[in-house]
Amino acid sequence: MSGDIVFFDLPGKDAEATAKFWQSLFGWEFKEGNFPGYSMIHGPNPMGGTSHGDTSQFPRVYFSVDDVNAAIERVRELGGTAGEPVTIPAGVFANCVDDQGVEFSIFQTVNE
């Protein structure tokens, strides 16, 4: 469904310390991601990930959309900004900022 949260990223300056904190708090398991410098977080629903060396201060949420290109246009029409789409094995996403400066991402799942 469009608008559901389907993924999240946790920032982590130090990958080992980030994993230790969240594993101790929630029992989550961190595994090697599908590209260097990225870990997948297994345990929460929806699943998450963490970029090693990410210095941002807040988690990023990914909202499901049916058509990432149409959603990018709509974000821009509403006064927000949207980056170009990025294709990964699971689908296509774009990082965005709303008209108040809040960062988020939109994600379209790969059609199988």
UniProtKB/TrEMBL annotation:
Domain VOC: 4-109
Pfam families: Glyoxalase_6
Superkingdom of this protein's organism: Bacteria
Protein name per the record: VOC domain-containing protein
Organism field: Streptomyces lomondensis
